[in-house]
Amino acid sequence: MSLLTIRGLTIRYEGEAVVDGVDLAVERGASVGLVGESGSGKSQCALAVLGLLPARATLSGSIEFDGRELIGAGQEVLDDVRARRIGIVFQDPMLALNPYLRIGAQLKQILRSHGLADRREADARVIEMLARVGLPDPERQFAAWPHELSGGMRQRAMIASALIAQPDLLIADEPTTALDVTVQAQVLDLLERVREDTALLLITHDLGVVAGHCERMTVLEKGRVVDSGSTTSLFRSPGHRHTRDLIAAAPRVDRGEPPAPVTTGTVLSVGNAAVEFGDLRAVDDVSFAVGTGETVAIVGESGSGKSSLARAVLGLLPLATGRVVYAGDALASVVEKRALAVRRDLQLVFQDPISALDPQMRVQRIVAEPLVVHEPRLDEKRRRERVIAVLEQVGLGERFLRRYPHQLSGGEAQRVCIARALVLEPKVLICDEAVAALDGSVRRQVLGLLREVQRETGLSIIFISHDLAVVRSISHRALVMYSGRLVELAQSGALFEAPRHPYTQALIAAVPVPDPVLAPRPAPLPGEAPSLVSPPPGCAFHPRCPLAEAVCRAKAPALRTVGGTQVACHLAE
Ligand code: SF4
Q1: Ligand 1 midpoint to CA 534 (Å)
Q2: Cα(323)–Cα(433) distance, rounded to whole angstroms?
Q3: The ligand 1 atom nearest the CA atom of 539
Q4: Which residues lie closer than 8 Å to 54 by C-beta, 6 or more apart?
Q5: Which residues are within 8 A (CB) of 341 and not within 5 positions of it... i.e. 6 or more apart?
Q6: Residue whose CA is closest, atom 3 of ligand 1?
Q7: Which of 101, 147, 293, 566 has the fewest CB atoms within 10 Å of its CB?
Q8: From first to last of its 573 residues, what are the pLDDT tens digits of the chain?
Q9: Is 406 exposed, middle or buried (0-12, 13-18, 19+ CB in 10 A)?
Q10: Where in the chain is the domain with CATH 3.40.50.300?
């Protein structure tokens, strides 16, 4: 008998089914992936199991846990099953952790409320659990407030709170989506280790995560199961078109030809740039150039300084030292002092398209706005023609003119943002995590669109991303940042095939590969990125570097050229 058996689960809102006849089973000790794009209904299924759906949802079918029916069950059954025997891990740990209680107190409360430990035992049990999920110095974290922990540590604390009552099943809903790739690898490794005692239902849009961590998978599309079976066989021969599309759309860091190198002249260069926030040096002595029609990716984890660097290029953050040179002229450090023509030539696309669009404005006005500022003499008719032309360029067209942002899907909204940036025919487009919030197939379309615009217009792109698989597919060259410094800069082909810096190697190795038959991934990189206020002496990467030697602790490595790659590592050879 399965531990969890879902049969014919249907969830409706105002009569409309968002989950339609879903069947799913999780055996004891098994790991099952529930996969789908946003809106496919996967999180709704998890909420139904946990009894956390809003009151206006109506559900039918059956959810059986360890032989007991949960739909329509009495409070006593629900309290026992849902609070004690099923643990939950969300994407955002702040949803699960109480900000007003220290970590230790929260975990003790769970033990005590289920009568699982007396007062004296509880402290020891909690500290043991904090150690088990890999929190460094567990006694100290026991007394810490949630806001004092880093994102990765909070995620571990939440996993500890989900596991402390020794549940039979752990439901993890996009548990690593908000984490950096090296921390994601640590958390997935942790989930793998706790599986000895606990079955896992892993809900995710990331096929790489499923391929590496689930024996079975179920694929949802628009609330219905379209495929279900062993992960290996579904990857080998997907039964349904949607599964095939998902697998095809999953970007891969381990294969694919990056675009061929570009040999045009430089359009924009950054020299010895530094950005400071008080004592904190967010960007330290970074130099690079972008050619006409070239895409240069800036890669790094949170706190690496990649977004600060991009903002400094745009003049949205002042440079402490260094310069930005565009079309041969050194630019003023702040955008207000830059000539209007320069401002129009450098445009930005953000990560979150919906919040970047004014909800009160129709698409026509949103896209036309930059023209009103930069080309005030343009008459109404010409302006409208330009807007329609650029909407067509991004694959939307005239019928979108009168829509409001809330009438757009995520992918359409991001196309509108790109249209607004392109309507001025810029020379350089800076994309800051511009595809990070998009589903696989939409992401592929938007990347294709950027490539096409580049081919047609010679647009140069600075592509900031934490997603190395995406970077591999779009960038001609890539620069890797760690702790505010440039640690490697190379042609993308060389960077992905033969990375020279140990951090680049670890970053690439940490990306989950959507292929279940590939060899197991290497052990995750230990630790987290260092504090920018007091970075470690010598090479900032040395506390995490598997190759570190005495010289690494004593002396910061300078950037030098080794085999055509710029790299900052004493042992790059
Ligand atoms: Fe590792 Fe040393 Fe190279 Fe830094 S300089 S990356 S510590 S080998």
Answers
A1: 18
A2: 24
A3: 4
A4: none
A5: none
A6: 569
A7: 147
A8: 799 999 999 999 999 999 999 999 999 989 999 999 888 999 899 999 988 899 999 999 999 999 999 998 888 888 888 778 999 888 877 777 889 999 999 999 999 888 888 888 999 999 999 988 888 889 999 999 998 888 778 888 998 999 998 999 999 998 887 778 888 888 888 888 887 789 999 999 889 999 999 999 999 999 999 999 999 999 999 999 999 999 988 888 888 888 888 888 999 999 999 999 988 899 999 999 999 999 999 998 888 899 899 999 999 999 999 999 999 999 998 899 999 999 999 999 987 777 788 999 999 999 999 999 999 999 999 999 999 999 998 888 899 999 999 888 878 888 899 999 999 999 999 999 888 877 787 788 889 989 999 999 999 999 999 889 999 999 999 999 999 999 999 999 999 999 999 999 999 999 989 998 875 677 788 887 887 888 899 999 999 999 999 999 999 999 999 998 999 999 998
A9: exposed
A10: 4-249, 266-567
Whole-angstrom distance, CA of residue 171 vs CA of residue 313: 43
In eight-state DSSP terms, residue 305 is S
Length of the chain, in residues: 573
Q: Which residues contact 133 (CB under 8 A, 6 or more apart)?
A: 156, 157, 159, 160, 163, 190, 194
Q: Which of 501, 562, 571, 573 has most ligand 1 atoms within 8 Å of CB, for mutation?
A: 571
φ/ψ (deg, to 5) at 421: -70, -35
Supply the CATH classification number for the domain 266-567.
3.40.50.300
Closest by CA position to 461, among listed 489, 430, 500: 430
Pocket of ligand 1, beta carbon within 6 A: 501-502, 539, 541-542, 545, 547-548, 552, 557, 569-571
Residue position matching structure tokens 């000790």: 29
CA 131, chain centre distance (Å): 26
Nearest CA to ligand 1 atom 7: 542
In 175-330 the beta strands, taken as DSSP E runs, fall at 199-204, 216-221, 224-230, 266-277, 280-291, 295-299, 321-326, 329-330
Q: The domain 4-249 is classified under which CATH number: 2.60.40.2310, 3.40.47.40, 3.10.20.30, 3.40.50.300?
A: 3.40.50.300
- Nearest residue (by CA) to ligand 1, atom 5, is 569
